[in-house]
UniProtKB/TrEMBL annotation:
SUPFAM superfamilies: Homeodomain-like. Keywords: DNA-binding, Membrane, Transcription, Transcription regulation, Transmembrane, Transmembrane helix. One of its GO terms (molecular function) is sequence-specific DNA binding. It comes from bioreactor metagenome. The gene is rhaR_147. This is HTH-type transcriptional activator RhaR.
Amino acid sequence: MIKLHDLPLQSPDSLMILSHDFWNHNVWVPLLILAYPLFSLAIMLRYRKNYKKWCEENYASMENMDIKWLGDYIFSNFVITLSCYVVVLSDNVRSVLMHNIIFLIFFLYGFYRVLFQKSPYPEGYFKVSMNETKAEIRELMNNSNRCQTGDEQTDTVATGENDLNQRYQFTNKLPEYKTKLEQWMLSEKPYLRRDFKLTDAMEILPLNRSYLSRLFNEGYGETFYQFVMRYRIAESKHLLLTRPDLNITCIADLSGFSSPSVFSRAFMQETSCTPLQWREKEMVKKNVDDRFIQ
């Protein structure tokens, strides 16, 4: 006969209990707790790429845009999720202790990142109107030749709201916007500023942030970051050929890059060679052409 005290005691969190009595609150509450980190992990994996794209659409330099923290956060969340599973499906005291240690480390890391993380939003980002209709109304008022005051201005805005879709389409203005933007880039060279950002283009274009993003995406098929990088690479190539006395650090600084390492990475991605290698190739090619002409 088997005595009662000889029978092994079942853990309340064992797999047998989970499968046998699912609707017990001791079962579905831990499972519900496990579903939360899984949901958070799925959300972070989904929007990680979107966050990077958002940074590229708003900034000309990615050096201060620390995206690595999001990958670390996703990995930490994954480790915590695994430890939660171990705690729920096991009655081992050591696993509970290990889970608490992991969670504490994660909490301290998250506190550190929040305390020292630079805000990804440009200055005055939320002060700028994000409504596309208002942006078109602003364009209508700027391009209007009529100078009205008081109630007449209000009537103009109201009329513009009703006829915006018919009278002023963004796609119809796209060539004009591109021309203004390219002239500004060539004459003022704002891309030479390290802190150059998307909202700076509002100086010459009556568009809000969302419309400016569409200008680069639809007009050039690239993000704001890629657009500015083309101008900076072109400027650096010009300096490499015309100023052989300058070193890489000076060229990176004069071209608007935030650091020589950022310049080298961007240049290699564009030309598949280092700046010095590219300069040597171009100088050799130029000497060959000069000899051929002579």
